[in-house]
TrEMBL record:
GO terms assigned for molecular function: catalytic activity
Protein name: Histidine triad nucleotide-binding protein 3-like
Domain HIT: 9-121
Motif segment (Histidine triad motif): 101-105
Organism superkingdom: Eukaryota
Amino acid sequence: MESREDDCPFCRITNNETDTEILLSDDQLVCFRDLKPGAAHHYLIVPRRHIDTCKSLQADDVPLVEQMQQMGMKMLEKNKVCDLDDVRLGFHLPPFSSVPHLHLHALAPASQMVFRSQLHYGPKSHWFITVDKVLSQLKTQGRSLTLRGPRPSWLSHTGVVSQNP
């Protein structure tokens, strides 16, 4: 059995302790539907090993994140998403992660997501970071810094996000 947190719902799913339908899986990852889809196709790719968030990732996690990305694309292809250039793959940024277990969102078609979904999963959202940006940060800086550039004013005054990445 992989490492886990006893109260983590995604650890229970990865260990087949729920009735969640697993759509794809391998020795490191599982894929299932998002309970609150933000697009016509919305899947979660979750590592079996418990990792809290994308901020917990280090350079040696690059292969895992690349496998997550590949499984997300494979799931979209399997479900006949025609335009693979119109997809969104990424992670919610802490403290906006709904479940504190790393999970990649794979959504399509991105161009047809409603306004609310764009807020949650948009490339310019302060809640979301694309998988490509996480991989770039891991490869160049050895960790996922996640927040770059000016912080939104509503975060600056709350103390929610640390100034130091």
